[in-house]
UniProtKB/TrEMBL annotation:
Entry EC number(s): 2.3.1.-
Top-rank EC class of the record's enzyme: transferase
Domain N-acetyltransferase: 23-168
Gene Ontology molecular function terms on file: acyltransferase activity
InterPro entries: Acyl_CoA_acyltransferase (IPR016181), Bact_Acetyltransf (IPR050832), GNAT_dom (IPR000182)
Top-rank taxon, per record: Bacteria
Keywords: Acyltransferase, Transferase
Name of the protein in its database record: GNAT family N-acetyltransferase
Listed PROSITE patterns: GNAT
SUPFAM superfamilies: Acyl-CoA N-acyltransferases (Nat) (SSF55729)
Length: 168
């Protein structure tokens, strides 16, 4: 896959263990976890739980040959991620789409998803699926804007409440 660029943005594959990818994973997990706990329990994520959950997700599925993690940089600085993992039978799953709050609204999310779709096609996928939560309304709006359609559940993930798919 070739790197994608748009103005100050660049998107390229990066190992999940790189410093930039690891820092973005921590930001992503902290934000989505805090949003869930604030909504359901009126508190932020317990720091010990946060460390335990971050350490437990090694993201092995986002490494070649069956996956890829893309890192978006804005002005050369890591600003967001999108992961793709093969799910079988010509299907890839979109994971970890995230932009740091300071970089939202600048076109990076659409660029990341387009790069993820390109990566999925390069892995042999003909369809992309994803799941998300009900409280992540911005994500649901993004996916709908980019041509994803809500579908029946394709997995039984504990926090999944909405499932989307798009033919590639």
């Amino acid at each position: 896959m070739t790197p994608r660029t748009a103005a100050a943005w660049s998107v390229a594959p990066e190992d999940v263990a790189s410093a930039g990818a690891a820092a973005l994973w921590r930001e992503y997990y902290t934000e989505v976890s805090d949003r869930w706990y604030l909504l359901h329990e009126g508190r932020r994520t317990d720091p010990e739980e946060l460390e335990r959950e971050i350490a437990a997700d090694t993201a092995e599925g986002l490494r070649p040959p069956g996956g890829v993690l893309l890192v978006a940089r804005y002005g050369g600085v890591p600003a967001g991620t999108a992961g793709v993992r093969l799910a079988g039978d010509g299907v890839a799953e979109l994971k970890r789409v995230f932009l740091l709050p300071a970089h939202r609204g600048k076109g990076g999310a659409a660029l990341l998803v387009a790069a993820a779709e390109e990566a999925a096609r390069a892995l042999g996928a003909r369809r992309m699926v994803l799941d998300t939560r009900g409280d992540l309304v911005e994500a649901r709006a993004l996916y709908a804007r980019l041509g994803y359609r809500e579908t029946e559940p394709h997995n039984d993930e504990a926090y999944a409440e909405h499932w989307f798919a798009k033919e590639l």
